[in-house]
């Protein structure tokens, strides 16, 4: 069986020419077996499962504590259930290093779509030292033990001219397959939109949830227009949505779109927008990872069902 990365090399030209499917054979088997939903990366046609794994929050905490058992279980579960996208960042503490070590130890490195970030400018802005940015990127390569990175994005729009410039060079050299930028601040969406209009990026990463839909107004239509992939962060509102539904049962009508838990309810809402390529909730619990992957199976809510989902959440008490 050829590896995922070898398969991608063989099919890259076909995808660029409009091939119907570019996908890891083992992933394709998992999708067919489990009826997983995939979305195409707009710039290439490569298919990705619509639910993946993020590495902030509890995942980062487990990595910081060197809880290898938890990280091992989560990564194994994601791959076993047909997931692929693993979104991380140097800013998430030990997440890159621990996840890379575990994936290589388990022999699943090539089954993962490695999506990381670069930012040495910091959240407050300022200039990024090019050498520091390059060093940070090289550390990511070393942690994952890969020669080609699937995706690197500029984290929080940090010094776009410098850091995105480096990523463009790396993409031209073939060391990075896709590049992009991220922002989880609505106040900076105009800056994000400016980059989307003026830079040749493949992806963006933004926050989006059933009670946090501002990205759908400005950002998602532009992503569709510019053929830019979208990774969704914080689909549970971090802990906000969990607090709002605590003690409540998932409505029976959610079964109409195959949502059988609140996690699947929230993930299917986020994945239902056609601009979204993949949703990447963070977790350190294998059972939660399995539940999350259920959000990539079966049906997604239609427009009327999404409206009903919004109404339900808006009627819940805020906490």
Report on this structure.
With 319 residues, this protein is of the alpha/beta class. The chain has a single domain, classed as TIM Barrel. Helices cover 45% and strands 13% of the residues. It has 13 helices and ten strands. The protein has helices spanning 4-16, 25-34, 57-64, 68-80, 95-106, 130-144, 160-173, 189-198, 215-226, 240-245, 262-272, 286-293, 303-314, and strands at 38-40, 47-49, 53-54, 85-87, 113-118, 149-154, 176-183, 203-207, 229-233, 278-279.
Gross morphology: globular
What's the gyration radius in Å? 18 Å
Helix content class: 40-55%
Helices and strands, in order, run as: HHEEEHHEHEHEHEHEHEHHEHH
Per CATH, the superfamily is NADP-dependent oxidoreductase domain
Mean pLDDT value = 91
> Architecture in CATH?
Alpha-Beta Barrel
Q: SS-based structural class?
A: alpha/beta
Overall tally of structural domains: 1
What amount of the residues lies in strands? 5-15%
Uncertain ranges? 1-21
Total DSSP helices: 13
Biggest sheet layout: 8 strands, parallel
Strand order of the largest sheet: 3-4-5-6-7-8-9-10
Brief descriptors of the model:
single chain; 319 residues; alpha/beta; TIM Barrel; 8-stranded parallel β-sheet; 13 helices; 13% strand; disordered N terminus
Outline:
The chain has 319 residues and is an alpha/beta fold.
Walk me through the topology.
Blueprint: H1 4-16, H2 25-34, E1 38-40, E2 47-49, E3 53-54, H3 57-64, H4 68-80, E4 85-87, H5 95-106, E5 113-118, H6 130-144, E6 149-154, H7 160-173, E7 176-183, H8 189-198, E8 203-207, H9 215-226, E9 229-233, H10 240-245, H11 262-272, E10 278-279, H12 286-293, H13 303-314
Parallel strand pairs: 3-4, 4-5, 5-6, 6-7, 7-8, 8-9, 9-10
Antiparallel strand pairs: 1-2
